[in-house]
Design a protein that fits this description.
Length: about 325
């Protein structure tokens, strides 16, 4: 064997050894955290971790059964997170952590506290999707001890809700949070969403929630009940134009096959719902249509920048 061939075999062997060490240290010796659950009380922070072992991290048929839940408490968020990680069987890995649950009792405090932590820790990601959850960490942990598959069901609920959940980095124009609740022994998604802004937490009605998701382009299918008739939209095209001192919102809907075709009256009611939703969100401190940016693009620096500190501008909707 030539010297060059021997050198190639040696380099190949070193590469295989390095790959083996890397895969073992990155996968087989760590607990894969799939979701974080945060809860702030007047006395302490509670943190729960949904995790699974590396061999179950792949999307295989038996992987979900390995999802487990552990929790920790502390006076600060960092201390509580460290306490929760102490209960993991192996070192934590956040490479598949895609969901962040915030307790509905203290959403703003949890959001403002966790964002700096996510920025400081390289293993945590601002691309995490944010959801609200009604039960606290203690209740969730008790359910996980009673029902073996409860952590799996909670993670699956987050996956099913992902298309309606905003990313953490999107909080600049408000976060429209889907609300996960425990009801009659099952995990369900509440029909009404919560709007979390710099000024507070606001509840939207079921109709406003659906329209806000259309305007934010969350999800592919939406159903409205108009005059007791369900209208299911399979696809929508959104356009926003600055018109004088106000704005025109153009919504072009494609209805789902076999669903009812909206009448002219029903289209007008959808237009009214669109305007009402935009105004409600604006008053809550969320410019969900980025009207300020639309105005700035049209006028450049000729006029003052439009923000939610101003009165809500006139909005006209056109639904086709």
């Amino acid at each position: 064997m030539s010297r060059r061939a021997t050198l190639r075999l040696l380099l190949l062997g070193l590469l295989l050894c390095w790959c083996g060490v890397f895969l073992r240290s990155e996968n087989t010796e760590k607990s894969i955290v799939r979701a974080l659950l945060l809860e702030q009380t007047p006395e302490q922070w509670n943190v729960a971790l949904l995790y699974q072992f590396p061999e179950a991290a792949a999307d295989s048929s038996d992987a979900a059964a390995s999802v487990q839940l552990c929790a920790g408490t502390g006076k600060t968020l960092e201390q509580a997170l460290f306490a929760a990680e102490e209960h993991l069987p192996q070192r934590p890995s956040y490479r598949l952590c895609e969901y962040l649950f915030l307790n509905t009792g203290s959403l703003r405090g949890e959001l403002f506290a966790c964002e700096p932590l996510f920025c400081e820790r390289a293993d945590l990601r601002l691309a995490t999707r944010v959801l609200a959850v009604t039960p606290g960490c203690e209740e969730l942990l008790a359910r996980a001890e009673e029902e073996e598959r409860f952590p799996e069901q909670l993670l699956q609920c987050a996956k099913d809700t992902a298309e309606y959940a905003p990313h953490l980095y999107e909080r600049g124009k408000g976060l429209l949070l889907p609300v996960v609740q425990l009801k009659e022994g099952s995990i369900t998604l509440q029909k009404e969403a919560l709007l979390l802004t710099e000024t507070g937490t606001f509840s939207l009605t079921e109709e406003e929630t659906e329209m806000a998701r259309v305007l934010l382009e969350y999800g592919q299918e939406h159903t409205f009940i108009v005059e007791e008739t369900p209208i299911t939209i399979r696809r929508s095209v959104l356009g926003v134009q600055a018109a004088g001192d106000g704005f025109t919102v153009q919504l072009t809907f494609q209805k789902k096959a076999a669903s009812a075709t909206p009448t002219e009256t029903q289209c007008r009611k959808l237009e009214a719902l669109c305007v009402e939703t935009v105004q409600h969100c604006w008053d809550a401190g969320a410019d969900i249509l980025s009207l300020g940016s639309v105005r700035a693009l049209r006028d450049g620096r000729k006029t003052a920048f439009l923000t939610t500190k101003n009165a809500c501008p006139a909005v006209q909707a056109d639904v086709m």
